[in-house]
Amino acid sequence: MSSATPVPARKVGLLSASALGVGGMMGAGLYTLLGLAATTTGPWLPMAFLIAGFAAVFSVYSYAKMGAAFPSSGGPANFILKQFGHSIVSGGVNVFQYISYLIATALYAAGFSEYVGALFGTTFPGWTSRLIGPAVIVVFAAINVLGSQLVGKAETYIVAVELVILVGFMVFGFFRADFSNITVASSAGVSFIGILTASGLLYVTYQGFGVVANASGAMARPKKELPRAMFIGLAIVAAIYLTVSTLVVLLLPQAQILADSGHVLADAGQAVLGRLGFVLVSGAAILATASAVNATIFAASNIGGFLAQQKQLPQAFQRKLAGKIPVSLIISAVVIIVLVAFFPLSAVGQMTSLAFLFVYAIVSLGHLKLRAQTGARAWPLVTAIVINAVMFVALLIDAIRTGPAASWIVLIVALLGSFAYAWIRSRRAQLAPPDPE
């Protein structure tokens, strides 16, 4: 997921918009969450990706209709404002959406740390593994201060390298596939609830479709081309995810998938091409997660500044230290470092997916109010709301049952705190004296 992929200033056509969607969706989420999802699916991992992709279709429909009707670069934050106006609901959802981006950045930083640790193994002392994630946050926060234009331009090349490595992995992988890895024993204990839980976790791997909605303002014919581009991008990414996850199940025994869940794709690369495959896939994962950290911390900082302009966050988020360093970037980086330092990869993975499932459900719910303006049908929006809600509940129950208690408690506190903060700001605005004429 790379939700802040730069949008070109020139007019965006169908092909480039589709490529933008592929680049936005197919990123760090695949490397960081695939192994974690396998812990509840066993050999049914591809089914979880398929269900998640099917579920994403309805949210893509909602975003496509909203983006076509209201072309802008503001993305979901603007959607929420269009749907709910300047209210406690929009304030609470948008503040929580900002927090969601911080949690997502923590996920990618944790994934970066996992793959660096797997690649270098015992080369690093044990204590350094706790510093890698925070260090990458500091580095990319500094890059954003100095100017992230170069990294933004490199995004296209990073996605191209990822695609080449993944396509090579898929082609050579089928020659090494071992169907004996799929046994009755490996399916023991797997239930539909487990697969549904994994689908909720993997749903966020399709999250980048919002990038195409952000590009709608640069399209010549957004009403026609935006929906097509989003669905083309979704179809391509879903096909890649299904193929890769199928190969992982066929290449690795279930015990190894569970043992190395944080970097299981690198293990699959090793099963195909030995040490070279391990290094290539690890390198692709490091590039993807680093790129996602840069893009998402940039997006979080911008959202913080935007919400401050809309008076939904303190005005301090608009300020700059020494005339150059955005306060919103500093706050974002500090919160992300705390998340990376105190929560393992599995915890931030669950938190990220839960957060975006909630946001997508609210966007589709608010969309129902604007159907006359967007031309959307009601049943896909209602389906999106129901699917997101069901996945949210299933994943939350799993987080309560299996994850660290602090992770889901922090998420719920963040959600309730966002709405409490919006209510307090609303009350202060009502009590404030009117500006003098």
Automatic annotation (TrEMBL):
<feature type="transmembrane region" description="Helical">
    <location>
        <begin position="321"/>
        <end position="342"/>
    </location>
</feature>
<dbReference type="GO" id="GO:0022857">
    <property type="term" value="F:transmembrane transporter activity"/>
</dbReference>
<keyword id="KW-0812">Transmembrane</keyword>
<feature type="transmembrane region" description="Helical">
    <location>
        <begin position="84"/>
        <end position="111"/>
    </location>
</feature>
<feature type="transmembrane region" description="Helical">
    <location>
        <begin position="230"/>
        <end position="252"/>
    </location>
</feature>
<dbReference type="InterPro" id="IPR050367">
    <property type="entry name" value="APC_superfamily"/>
</dbReference>
<feature type="transmembrane region" description="Helical">
    <location>
        <begin position="131"/>
        <end position="150"/>
    </location>
</feature>
<dbReference type="InterPro" id="IPR002293">
    <property type="entry name" value="AA/rel_permease1"/>
</dbReference>
<feature type="transmembrane region" description="Helical">
    <location>
        <begin position="406"/>
        <end position="424"/>
    </location>
</feature>
<feature type="transmembrane region" description="Helical">
    <location>
        <begin position="348"/>
        <end position="366"/>
    </location>
</feature>
<keyword id="KW-1133">Transmembrane helix</keyword>
<keyword id="KW-0472">Membrane</keyword>
<protein>
    <submittedName>
        <fullName>Unannotated protein</fullName>
    </submittedName>
</protein>
<feature type="transmembrane region" description="Helical">
    <location>
        <begin position="44"/>
        <end position="64"/>
    </location>
</feature>
<feature type="transmembrane region" description="Helical">
    <location>
        <begin position="12"/>
        <end position="38"/>
    </location>
</feature>
<dbReference type="Pfam" id="PF13520">
    <property type="entry name" value="AA_permease_2"/>
</dbReference>
<feature type="transmembrane region" description="Helical">
    <location>
        <begin position="157"/>
        <end position="175"/>
    </location>
</feature>
<feature type="transmembrane region" description="Helical">
    <location>
        <begin position="187"/>
        <end position="209"/>
    </location>
</feature>
<feature type="transmembrane region" description="Helical">
    <location>
        <begin position="272"/>
        <end position="300"/>
    </location>
</feature>
<feature type="transmembrane region" description="Helical">
    <location>
        <begin position="378"/>
        <end position="400"/>
    </location>
</feature>
<keyword id="KW-1003">Cell membrane</keyword>
<dbReference type="GO" id="GO:0005886">
    <property type="term" value="C:plasma membrane"/>
</dbReference>
